[in-house]
Amino acid sequence: MNERYTARVAEDRLSTVLRPVRAGNGFEEALEQILQIVRLGLVAEGERLPSERELADRLGISRVTLREALRVLADQGLVESRRGRYGGTFVRRSPSAEAGAQGTEAHPVDPAGLEDTLLFREVLETGAAGLCAARGLTREETARLRTALDATRESALPDYRRHDTLFHLTLAELAGSPSLTAQYAAVRASLNDLLGRIPLLVRNLEHAQVQHTALTDAVLEGDAEGAREIMREHCAGTAALLRGFLA
Fold first, then answer.
1. By C-alpha distance, which of 61, 213, 187 is closest to 123?
2. Looking at residue 241, what DSSP letter applies?
3. Is the Cβ–Cβ distance between 30 and 67 less than 8 Å?
4. Is there a contact between 58 and 33 (Cβ–Cβ < 8 Å)?
């Protein structure tokens, strides 16, 4: 996969989240969208966010408002500003990720909110998997899905959840519904906050990889029912872990 293609895919993913904000809530909505970029891992830890000019243009806000939003994220330790020729705003490791790495989390989880997130995630993901298989993928789309799958296989443990997110987000995008993709991006951001509160379990990740491979095969073979069933089982496994650790 060449660099130009990879850059275009990254650009498309940012377009999934970044959109002009509504009048009256510019600061709040800009903050929400940039938070989604960070929480979804669309810009990885240590990488630079789009320039202030690009972010302001995409969001339809002034650079003053944008800087206020970025200042809040910096105060929360999510981003940092660097000066100089190669400066900009860079993503830092989130506090929830630090807590998850240690297997601890001080804040309780609302059981009803947890169940709502898990149910909505399952509905969106099983639907997306079935749509992908039913509509069939082009050669370029197939390459995108396989590249996302390979990235999860080759990922180092600390970066696994980011690549897992991108794999699932790719499936949502390939379903062909921008509305579905936008809703999935939002629920995945909430899911990642929950996952950040529990430890990474190697056995679980190995099982997830088997399911990812089977899911990709079902999609590429046009097996819509099989794709939905594998995704449903995959979501159920994640849900069981989250309930066990957090409920």
1. 187
2. H
3. no
4. no
| Four-residue CA torsion sign, 166, 167, 168, 170 | positive
> What tens digit of pLDDT does each residue of 143-169 get?
999 999 999 999 999 899 999 999 999
Which amino acid belongs to residue 47? E
Sign of CA dihedral 42, 58, 19, 8: negative
Which residues are paired to 48 by β-bridges? 90
Amino acid at the residue 2: N
Query: Which is more confident, 89 or 29?
Result: 89
CB atoms under 10 Å from CB of 239, counted, come to 19
Which domains are present in the chain? 10-92 (1.10.10.10), 109-246 (1.20.120.530)
Among left, alpha and beta (phi > 0; psi -120 to 50; other), residue 140 is: alpha
Q: How many beta carbons lie within 10 A of that of residue 46, not counting itself?
A: 9
pLDDT higher than 50, residue 237: yes
